[in-house]
Inverse folding.
């Protein structure tokens, strides 16, 4: 199964995008939660505040589907 | 007129009503960059060291900065400054919205208020027309109500800043409110306005600001806007603002719960960003020149109470008035946010003060008879509403808490100082530093008292090792130089890390505006100069070695985190001392936390060394000399 992960900021350098400036194509097993997929590509889930898909917030226990495009949001301070 | 400046500074004597128009001092701006830089310099030069912060010798500064109002993303800020009644040191606080740009469009860069008005007034500015007007019809109104009435009376196109009853009554953590939800919350600037009988500022302006190279600026900024519109963080930011961060903060054991007793909140799902969007959101809201609109205009609906409208709660208020008070409904958090806004109280210090009082109640240090027959239980919005009314009007024990947690603990005693969660008199932001040592050090050493905006290190703490304190000092120094630059230039900081706009790009914009031709390193050096001047000012007013002011409350080292993913974690006093030693060394200060003459000379503020020397607090020379660079750029380790 293929999904696409996007990230900016400090997360972008860790994600190592290969599709465009922000996006990486990731091959993974179906049924894996996002947190496990992140660990598999060397990103600690602790450095992802939340995931965002189709305009909706997703927790890191979300299980992606084929072709999902998921944005990873880094943690930041308040204003 | 210098590029980037409106050209005129106002000096307003509130004793006499005299209003002087002076050409803005371009040399001063070039050296101190405006915003909090100019504020620091003017406060240092003009306020006598023995001046009561709420007395006539303190001054109150409104500063629109060098980049605010220009063709700059998020160039929306306005900076307020005075000697803080909360910390008794130089204080500043800023807010977004539209006031700063509008002040410059009216032709003014800087306003300095002196003295105390004999009666309540507000400042009216309509381009060339400047008047101190009678505010007796507005005095006593709550902040949001006052803004509405002034807009009704003057016109919707006036930008308004007001204080509420708290500022009028000298509550030391009072804020200034603008645009129905933007606050300059920190350091009690609203109390200083109130002490001067200055209820509000109303501004309308329609002039333009000259910049050095408009073509280059337009080309650069347009490129940034087009680029960042495609940034993956943009849409999440627009949808949630900073409220999304609540869940992460809880999962990673930094959220304050029950007055920082623990860092895990079992009911976090009831007060998080999803709840805010689902239950409270009315519409998104943006400041001047911003394309991110992270502001959330919301409502709070609670049976038996009127539906109220507000902006927020964003992360800081959401945590400090949510988990920190044991609230179990986002509507209750939003309602407390509205109460604080309308009374004119800082929602960060306000959350800290309420939480401290709740823990005092939990421990039997204050009782129902002290609270006019009410309780003050975790999670009770009714209890909070009554308590805040007591504080804002200084009724009974409300008067003790009107000075913030440090002063309240001094009144209550019986060990309460340990859990008055403040540094230098200012309450902590919405992060517990016991398992984030760099964050704790950031609070300890912030020049205006505990405040995350000066330095925020939590992801650094996680990357570097949360139980290690070594090396954290240099990172904090770097962040204390770069983050306050945004407040110096009067632009929003949120788009820096979040949308990958680099410091180099921002300095390039600054150079297009001003023609100064400076580098990021030069800007950081200016920031270091401001930081050290504020340090000297604080020490001159409070008359002790710097180290004496830099310790957190004892909970930071006596209590381990009792629950959640951080259970058992915490720091020792020896580790805290080690961080301070490393921090002072990184800054070129001596072990007592005092700036040295060599450093102050290097920064071009020798006069501060002379003043410290006269008081006996000048730092001892550093063997081998001061570090050539203080606060080297931090490059994060791989996560």
């Amino acid at each position: 199964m293929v999904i696409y992960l996007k990230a900016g900021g400090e997360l972008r350098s860790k994600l190592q995008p290969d599709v465009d400036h922000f996006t990486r194509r990731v091959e993974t097993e179906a049924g894996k939660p996002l947190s496990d997929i992140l660990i598999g590509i060397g990103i600690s889930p602790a450095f992802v505040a939340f995931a965002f898909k189709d305009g909706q917030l997703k927790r890191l226990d979300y299980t992606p589907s084929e072709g999902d495009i998921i944005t990873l949001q880094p943690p930041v301070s308040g204003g | 007129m210098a590029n980037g400046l409106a050209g005129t500074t106002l000096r307003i004597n509130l004793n006499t009503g005299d209003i002087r128009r002076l050409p803005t001092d371009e040399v001063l701006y070039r050296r101190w960059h405006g915003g909090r830089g100019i504020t620091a310099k003017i406060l240092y030069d003009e306020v006598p060291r023995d001046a009561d912060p709420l007395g006539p010798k303190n001054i109150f500064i409104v500063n629109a900065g060098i980049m605010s109002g220009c063709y700059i993303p998020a160039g929306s800020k306005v900076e307020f400054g005075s000697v803080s009644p909360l910390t008794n040191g130089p204080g500043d606080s800023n807010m977004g919205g539209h006031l700063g740009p509008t002040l410059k469009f009216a032709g003014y860069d800087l306003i300095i208020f002196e003295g105390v008005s004999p009666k309540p007034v507000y400042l009216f500015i309509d381009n060339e027309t400047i008047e101190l007007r009678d505010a007796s019809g507005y005095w006593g109104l709550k902040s949001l109500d006052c803004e509405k009435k002034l807009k009704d009376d003057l016109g919707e196109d006036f930008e308004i800043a007001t204080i509420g009853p708290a500022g009028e009554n000298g509550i030391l953590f009072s804020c200034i409110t603008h645009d129905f939800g933007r606050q300059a919350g920190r350091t009690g600037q609203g109390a200083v306005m109130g002490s001067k009988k200055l209820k509000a500022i109303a501004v309308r302006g329609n002039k333009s600001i000259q910049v050095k190279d408009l073509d280059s600026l337009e080309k650069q900024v347009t490129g940034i806007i087009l680029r960042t519109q495609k940034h993956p963080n943009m849409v999440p930011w627009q949808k949630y603002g900073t409220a999304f961060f609540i869940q992460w903060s809880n999962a990673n054991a930094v959220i304050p719960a029950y007055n920082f007793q623990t860092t895990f909140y079992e009911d976090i799902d009831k007060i998080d960003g999803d709840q805010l969007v689902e239950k409270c959101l009315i519409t998104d809201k943006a400041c001047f020149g911003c394309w991110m609109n992270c502001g959330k205009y919301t409502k709070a609906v609670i049976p038996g109470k009127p539906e109220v409208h507000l902006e927020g709660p964003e992360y800081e208020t959401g945590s400090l008035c949510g988990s920190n008070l044991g609230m179990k409904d986002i509507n209750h958090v939003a309602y407390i946010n509205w109460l604080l806004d309308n009374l004119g109280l800082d929602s960060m210090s306000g959350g800290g003060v309420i939480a401290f009082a709740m823990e005092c109640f939990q421990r039997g240090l204050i009782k129902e008879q002290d609270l006019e027959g009410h309780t003050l239980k975790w999670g009770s919005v009714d209890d909070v509403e009554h308590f805040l009314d007591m504080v804002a009007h200084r009724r009974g024990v409300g008067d003790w808490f009107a000075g913030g947690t440090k002063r309240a603990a001094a009144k209550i005693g019986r060990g309460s100082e340990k859990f008055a969660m403040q540094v230098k008199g200012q309450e902590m932001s919405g992060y517990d530093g016991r398992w984030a040592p760099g964050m704790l050090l950031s609070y300890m050493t912030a020049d205006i008292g505990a405040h995350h905006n000066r330095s925020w290190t939590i992801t650094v703490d996680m990357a570097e090792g949360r139980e290690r304190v070594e090396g954290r000092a240099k990172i904090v120094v770097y962040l204390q130089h770069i983050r306050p630059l945004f407040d110096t230039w009067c632009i929003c900081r949120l788009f820096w890390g979040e949308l990958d706009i680099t410091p180099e790009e921002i300095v390039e914009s600054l150079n297009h505006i001003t023609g100064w031709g400076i580098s990021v390193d030069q800007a950081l050096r200016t920031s270091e100069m401001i930081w050290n001047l504020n340090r000297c000012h604080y020490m001159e007013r409070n008359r002790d070695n710097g180290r004496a002011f830099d310790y957190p409350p004892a909970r930071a080292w006596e209590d381990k985190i009792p629950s959640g993913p951080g259970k058992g974690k915490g720091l020792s006093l020896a580790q805290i001392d080690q961080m301070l030693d490393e921090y002072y060394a990184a800054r070129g200060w001596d072990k007592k936390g005092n700036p040295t003459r060599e450093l102050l000379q290097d920064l071009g503020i020798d006069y501060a060394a002379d003043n410290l020397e006269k008081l006996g607090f000048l730092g001892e020379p550093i063997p081998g000399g001061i570090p050539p660079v203080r606060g080297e750029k931090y490059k994060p380790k791989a996560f």
